[in-house]
Design goal:
Elements: E1 2-5, H1 15-19, E2 25-28, E3 31-34, H2 43-47, E4 53-56, E5 71-74, E6 77-78, E7 81-82, H3 85-100, E8 104-110, H4 114-122, E9 127-132, H5 141-155, E10 159-163, H6 166-179, E11 183-187, E12 189-192, E13 199-205, E14 210-214, E15 222-226, E16 242-245, E17 277-281, H7 291-301, E18 304-307, H8 309-313, E19 334-338, H9 344-350, E20 355-360, H10 367-370, E21 373-376, H11 379-390
Parallel strand pairs: 5-8, 5-10, 8-9, 9-16, 10-15, 11-15, 17-18, 17-19, 19-20, 20-21
Antiparallel strand pairs: 1-4, 2-3, 6-7, 12-13, 13-14
Helix pairs in contact: 5-6, 7-11
Bound molecules: flavin-adenine dinucleotide.
Length: 391
């Protein structure tokens, strides 16, 4: 796509500058100049009363994509166990496959994978493509990128869903680049559009203030990464599918990285996404050592500690505890927000919790709009009272 200003028509009125959400136009010597950060949205074209901005789309040569069929999910194997997000992708993948009238498949890499393959079949996979090799026991970018690309080129799925976990976020973009297709990261909604049968991939944008729906019209597969806890897990059913064992192609599975040891970070091991009770603290706590109040409440309730980004940015608590758009998405039975205002980016990570309790001294705080129970008060009085009550 190209964009240019027709100098003979531009009178430097500046309406295009006002219309540009990306601050990508400047008026220099009474003429509009388009900067490198233009994303070709076309808002300035519509805003220009002189028709002085020309947006030219290159003609796309339509490819024959009819060979691409079916929905694939990448099943994440962590230390030999399937991550729950794999079942969430199967649940959502099934809906997409049903809308398309096609099959749902899972791809699994690992060692001694038999039980996990059976598990994937029980969760509704019609086919499990598995590569079972000692070299694939632990996640490594290089072989995972190479082998998933190989499988896609061999079997040509129409849609490929990958968990938006640290593994998926690391290798999915590289797979997309090798396949020369698009990738929509961190999707929160997926749907097949009835007429075109295209995958509508919805994700938050502009810091969570807008939702964008993205399509991948001219390349295949249509690839998305999906955050854990966005979709519900596929139900267990009697397995009907089949397992296809695929040997490593010759001279493949190599990594440029030599994995010597896996060290577990105590903080990163906290099971925030899978906890039933989360007590989160925000800037209202005032300082790092006050997080002990939140931990004490979490402890008496048998829960774990979460945090807002403000608390993480202030270095009061490790990032592994952050809930929200750039942290974890959680859906516990009980979420208690202490001294958290309820910014849209925080809500994006917790608003589907079953029961939300908010403690905030500001009765107008937006967190109260999503809370089932609100306590307007000073958290330094309310939390000790709750600890006493539940001890
Ligand atoms: C791209 C982007 C991504 C982001 N991602 C995230 C994310 O993943 N997670 C996230 O949380 N934020 C995220 N943010 C930041 C977000 O916009 C907010 O800045 C942040 O959530 C605010 O944290 P907070 O509620 O703890 O702090 P504040 O907004 O400052 O709120 C503090 C609250 O504490 C209350 N309070 C103060 N003292 C007391 C007291 N003694 N007793 C009771 N209440 C008290 C106040 O009334 C106030 O409501 C993101 C922002 C951007 C732009």
């Amino acid at each position: 796509m190209t964009i240019r200003v027709l100098e003979e028509k531009c009178n430097g009125c500046g309406l295009c500058v006002v219309s540009c959400l990306f601050d990508a136009i400047e008026i220099i010597a009474q003429k509009a100049e388009i900067k490198d950060n233009c994303n070709f949205c076309g808002a300035c074209v519509d805003a220009c009363p002189k028709e002085a901005i020309l947006l030219e789309k290159k003609e796309v040569i339509k490819k024959d994509l009819s060979a691409y069929k079916g929905v694939w999910i990448f099943a994440e194997n962590r230390n030999g166990k399937l991550a729950k997000v794999s079942f969430e992708l199967l649940g959502e993948g099934k809906k997409l496959a049903t809308s398309l009238g096609e099959n749902l498949s899972a791809v699994l890499f690992g060692e001694q994978t038999e039980n996990n393959c059976q598990e994937l079949l029980k969760r509704g996979a019609d086919t499990v493509y598995v590569m079972d090799e000692p070299a694939l026991k632990n996640f490594q970018d290089d072989p995972y990128v190479e082998l998933l690309t190989y499988l896609v080129n061999q079997y040509k799925p129409e849609i490929l869903l990958i968990p938006a976990t640290s593994q998926g976020r690391s290798f999915a973009p590289r797979v997309a680049a090798r396949l020369q297709t698009g990738l929509t990261a961190d999707c929160t909604g997926l749907e097949i559009e009835e007429k075109t049968k295209l995958l509508y991939q919805t994700r938050p944008t502009f810091g969570g203030n807008l939702m964008a729906t993205i399509i991948c019209e001219n390349e295949r597969p249509q690839m998305s990464t999906v955050r854990p806890k966005i979709f519900t897990e596929a139900e267990v059913q009697s397995p009907k599918g089949k397992i296809i064992n695929i040997p490593l192609p010759q001279n493949s599975g190599e990594s440029r990285i030599n994995l010597m040891e896996i060290l577990k970070n105590k903080e990163e091991n906290i099971d925030l996404a899978d906890s039933d009770i989360i007590v989160s603290g925000g800037r209202g706590l005032g300082e790092a050592k006050k997080f002990s109040l939140v931990s004490d409440l979490a402890k008496v309730l048998g829960g774990v500690v979460g945090a807002s980004r403000a608390a993480v940015d202030a270095d009061w608590i490790h990032y592994a505890h952050q809930v929200g758009q750039t942290g974890k998405t959680v859906r516990p039975h009980l979420y208690i927000a202490c001294g958290i205002s309820g910014a849209v980016q925080h809500l994006a990570g917790m608003q589907t919790s079953e029961v939300i309790v908010a403690i905030n001294k500001d009765p107008e705080a937006p967190i109260f709009k999503v809370a089932n129970y609100g306590i307007v008060g000073d958290l330094f009085e309310v939390i000790p009272a709750l600890i006493k009550k539940f001890s």
